[in-house]
Design goal:
Layout (H helix, E strand, L loop, with lengths): L1 H4 L8 H19 L1 H7 L2 H24 L11 H4 L3 H56 L2
Helix pairs in contact: 2-3, 2-6, 4-6
Length: about 140
């Protein structure tokens, strides 16, 4: 969260923060397993978080448009936030970075969990094939 919150002051931001959050979720998967990771954050919830992140990003941009500015013209947020222009820009950037972080975290988590699921299904198929071959070998050897 530090990387996300300080992205407009120092190196970091939404993408880096999202990747770090996704890495934390992947570590849960690696330590506790696929099913336990899905109990903590399902793929459906990850998809919703991804959509919420995109809506936050686009929403801030459209609010700026509705207020008469360009897309992501944070200075226009002064009229609704009632703060000084530098503070409005800072809050606008933080909102954008939060949306990016949610989207990146959810997308990375979903991709990794989908790959893990396909690998698990492939391995189960290989195990079943190995058991069938072993059974055939054992039964023919009797």
């Amino acid at each position: 969260l530090y990387v996300l919150a300080h992205g407009h002051y120092s190196p970091g931001g939404g993408f880096q923060g999202g990747v770090i959050l996704a890495a934390a979720l992947v570590l849960i998967f690696l330590v506790y397993g696929y099913d336990d990771a899905l109990d903590r954050l399902s793929l459906g919830t990850a998809g919703r978080l991804c959509s919420i992140g995109v809506l936050i990003y686009a929403g801030i941009g459209f609010i700026c448009l509705l207020l008469g500015g360009n897309f992501l013209d944070y200075s226009r947020l002064v009229s609704i936030l009632h703060v000084a222009p530098p503070k409005a820009r800072s809050l606008g950037i933080l909102g954008i970075e939060t949306g990016v972080a949610l989207t990146v975290m959810a997308a990375m988590y979903s991709i990794i969990m989908d790959v893990a699921n396909s690998e698990t299904n492939n391995n189960k198929g290989d195990t079943a094939a190995d058991e069938n071959q072993t059974g055939e070998i054992c039964s023919s050897g009797k």
